Amino acid sequence: MKYDVAIIGAGPGGIFSAYELMIKKPDLKVAVFEAGYPLEKRKCPIDGDKVKSCIGCHTCAIMNGFGGAGAFSDGKYNITNDFGGTLYEYIGKDEAIKLMKYVDDINMSHGGEGTKMYSTAGSEFKKICMQNKLTLLDASVRHLGTDINYVVLENIYAELKDYADFYFHTPVETIEALDKGFKVTYKDGEIECDKCIVSVGRSGSKWMEEVCKSLNISTLSNRVDIGVRVELPAVIFSHLTDSLYESKIVYRTEKYEDAVRTFCMNPHGIVVNENTNGIVTVNGHSFEDPEKKTDNTNFALLVSKHFSEPFKDSNGYGESIARLSNMLGGGVIVQRFGDMERGRRSNRKRIEEGTVRPTLEATPGDLSLVLPKRILDGIVEMIHALDKIAPGTANEDTLLYGVEVKFYNMQVKLDENLETEYKGLYIIGDGSGVTHSLSHASASGVYVARKILENM
Q: Which residues face 225 on adjacent strands?
């Protein structure tokens, strides 16, 4: 088979590349390869009744499939250059924001209309944070919710399925550069293409590393974010979430001067498992539907770790910590903040007697046996700092789930077109190490599609 464009990965980057190509040049022959399943077949077996924890599916339905890892996220599109990636360093700040707004327009026209856009601009909380040694980052935030996000993806796929050839449950094995174009090999065959867009997300980090090695594409070591997911009564953060929804707050610890930040805030949401390359970590979701809302809010507290010579494997470091958690807890560990400060393991009785009802079935345990002291000290400091702007954060019954790890692909050497040294081979989305969010990944997909069309 011969295609004009092959897209590897049907996450946000791949989807918006295909969509832009369809809108601008519908006669192109496009193939999309995805290791996971179509959206309607993405079903996690955890039901809270018969299956209460991760069973290690061969392909994680939460992480892989049409929509990528963002399909069952709470659908937050942060329109900002302050966080979410460094796309602006390649394409310029104005262009990056313009593309993120364009993505928002597409989402609104495919089922997202009526959802709210939040903004930190002119927020009174910026001053309050500064007065307490915290920094509130600037952003406009479109919150779709897990349910509306699913609808948007359904509607986009309904248009794309008759345009592109989708190869679901088809992991790509290798990419080979030809004299003209590329050969993409998978288990049951191979195709050739003139242009190739790689958008494999964070779950494809190891595969991306192998591709770069085989093609001698230069890479740089990236960071890994390690921490916990905090769950507490929604009312404690309601004054922030009602106005801002997603508040990205950064704190520099007094002890080590490390930056600790909030991430992925889910008002009235639930805590969930994720399976990345066989490692079970924790994340959070929230919904627009009032009937699906809970009494809790959850968010991550993360510490970034960068490594220099001689150690370069930041993802390997994060994986080792996550594996230790899985070994001790059989998956995710949960601990009361009061128990952590006392230096004792949580047990089921103390959690059941607490004021916070867990939304995830996790193993009560001791996170100090898993997380390095420096990271744990930073998290404890951050919780007390947040307690000053959201009193009750440091309550004894606040729950901490661990570990949460955000794996970032090593940064692939790309030019201003997000193109490798092989002309026609583009690396986009979180798989490139350039973007770290739904909005940035989607914008990179649109950008590359337009570059391909310019060169045709």
A: 304, 406
Bridge partners (DSSP) of residue 301 are 228, 262
Name residue 233's beta-bridge partners: 296
Write out pLDDT tens, residues 122-149: 788 999 999 999 999 989 999 998 899 9
CA 153, CA 425: separation in Å to the nearest integer? 26
Phi/psi for 439 (5° steps) reads -70, -45
Q: Do the beta carbons of residue 422 and residue 215 sit within 8 Å?
A: yes
Tell me which long-range contacts 154-158 makes (C-beta under 8 A, separation of at least 24): 154/39, 154/111, 155/110, 155/111, 156/15, 156/19, 156/106, 156/110, 157/38, 157/39, 157/66
Q: Which residues of 274-285 are buried (b: 16+ CB within 10 A; e: fewer)?
A: bbbbebbbbbbb
Average pLDDT in the chain: 93
Per-residue pLDDT tens digits for 48-101: 677 877 787 878 888 899 999 888 888 899 999 999 999 999 999 999 999 999
Q: Give dist(CA 139, CA 430) in Å, integer.
A: 19
Parallel, antiparallel or unpaired: strands 270-276 and 279-285 = antiparallel
Which residue from 9, 1, 4, 7 is spatially nearest to 29, judged by alpha carbons? 4
DSSP 8-state symbol, 41: G
Strand-pairing partners, residue 279, are: 276
Task: Say whether pLDDT at 283 is over 80.
Answer: yes
- Under 8 Å between Cβ of 35 and 431: no
12-24 vs 93-107: helix crossing angle, rounded to 10: 80
DSSP-assigned beta bridge partners for residue 89 = none
DSSP for 76-142, written as a single string: EEEE-SSSSB-THHHH-HHHHHHHHHHHHHHHIIIIITTPPEEE-TT-HHHHHHHHTTEEEPP-EEE
CA gap 376, 386 in Å, rounded: 15
pLDDT tens sequence across 335-367: 999 999 999 999 999 999 999 999 999 999 999
pTM above 0.70, yes or no: yes
User: Which residue(s) pair with 31 in the sheet?
Assistant: 6, 165
> Which of these, 249, 254, 240, 72, lies nearest to 145 by C-alpha position?
72
d(CA 292, CA 269): 8
